[in-house]
Amino acid sequence: MPRADYFYTLFYSMNEALKMEQQAKRLGIPGRLVPTPRGISGSCGMSWRAEITERSRIEEMVRANNIRVRGYR
What we know:
By secondary structure, the protein is of the alpha+beta class. It has a single domain, classed as 2-Layer Sandwich (Alpha-Beta Plaits). It has a 4-stranded antiparallel sheet with strand order 2-3-1-4.
């Protein structure tokens, strides 16, 4: 089960995960691509893990850059 102080962004494809990584680095938003934890399903196998305090910034970046995500956990 994921730790409560982190959340995960789930993707439909690896391309979207890489787009997320590129945009987050460009904007200086902390986090990293990690294998999706076993307790979470429904993604391409990779997720963006970030501290929960960054969630609103990440959701805004996802919308602004048209990154297709499956959801957040």
